[in-house]
Design brief:
single chain, about 300 residues, alpha/beta, Rossmann fold, Alpha-Beta Plaits, five-stranded mixed β-sheet, about 20% strand
């Protein structure tokens, strides 16, 4: 079972020490002095919980936190707020946190409140346990909501090529690392390209989708491909990397040479056609992804058909 990661954000060194001492035998604790220093890590590697110490009147921290939680990628991220004993109970309508605890109660009640916050998030929100990205239910809802609002958007379907032979050859641990890296790359690049109103989802296995503006989707796909092709070879043993392939069994049980894992991306949008159901969008993007997979190496293909209804 993977160790849960908790990000602690506090300017109170004594509180940070109490939290770490109380939780570090059960969780991986990463402490940050303020939300600005923590935000890059949260975007790069979505933690299982954020514990945040917000002083009254700290409008900047509240604004950054609310913006983060307002993003569909991070709305499932549970946040436990620590308050002073004299502080009033937070106004939940203006602060996007799931629970709170008083500083003086943390040593006694902290472990149970933390465990409950994480468990509640896992039960109530469908996310992929490996990448912590939203899964199929959230993906379908995102697409359908955009269609229903009449929003113009592009959807890209990314799939890894030759992943199964890699997984069989090197084992599940290294295979899982490839999936995690792919999820982080897509998340980081999409969010850098379009910080708001974008979406990234993990369909399952080695399949991902992302939604961005039509004018950004091809540049985003190119950047994902470039980053993926730079990083993935480092996960191969030196001899395999030098040869440019591994030997593994194909689906018929025959030994075959497989090239380095690559990524194929299929792209569609509703800028030149209209859709009424999320299934139509994902079906066309999947078809374009299948076209991309016919080419050797990483590439993307765009649906350019103009069908207006």
């Amino acid at each position: 079972m993977n160790e849960k990661t908790i990000v602690v954000i506090s300017q109170d060194a004594a509180l940070s020490s109490i939290i770490e001492r109380t939780l570090n035998t059960t969780y991986r604790i990463l402490s940050f002095h303020n939300i600005q220093s923590a935000i890059d890590y949260i975007y790069n590697s979505i933690p299982d919980l954020v514990i945040i110490d917000i002083n009254e009147g700290d409008s900047f921290t509240i604004s950054v936190l609310n913006n983060l939680k307002g993003d569909p990628i991070f709305h499932q991220l549970p946040v436990l707020m620590v308050i002073d004993d004299t502080q009033d109970i937070p106004r939940w309508e203006t602060l996007l946190v799931e629970d709170y605890i008083k500083k003086s109660d943390f040593e006694k009640e902290g472990p149970s409140r933390v465990a409950l916050s994480i468990l509640r998030a896992e039960r109530s929100v469908e996310v992929n346990p490996l990448t912590k990205l939203p899964g199929n239910t959230s993906i379908n809802k995102q697409i359908q909501d955009r269609i229903d609002r009449g929003e113009i958007f592009a959807l890209a379907y990314a799939d890894l090529d030759h992943f199964k032979p890699f997984n069989d050859h090197y084992g599940f641990t290294r295979g899982d690392e490839v999936i995690r890296i792919a999820g982080r790359l897509i998340l980081n690049i999409v969010k850098n390209k379009q910080p708001t109103d974008s979406f990234i989802g993990h369909i399952g296995g080695d399949d991902f989708i992302f939604i961005v503006s039509v004018n950004l989707v091809e540049d985003t796909a190119k950047e994902i491909i470039d980053a993926f092709d730079r990083i993935i070879p480092t996960l191969y043993e030196a001899d395999d990397r030098e040869r440019g392939h591994i030997e593994s069994l194909d689906r018929q049980g025959n030994t075959k040479k497989f090239p380095v894992v690559s990524v194929s991306i299929g792209i569609t949008s509703n800028s030149q056609r209209s859709f009424t159901h999320y299934g139509e969008v994902t079906e066309i993007a999947s078809g374009m992804k299948s076209q991309a997979k016919r080419s050797r190496g990483s590439c993307y293909r765009v649906d350019k058909r103009q069908v207006l209804t």
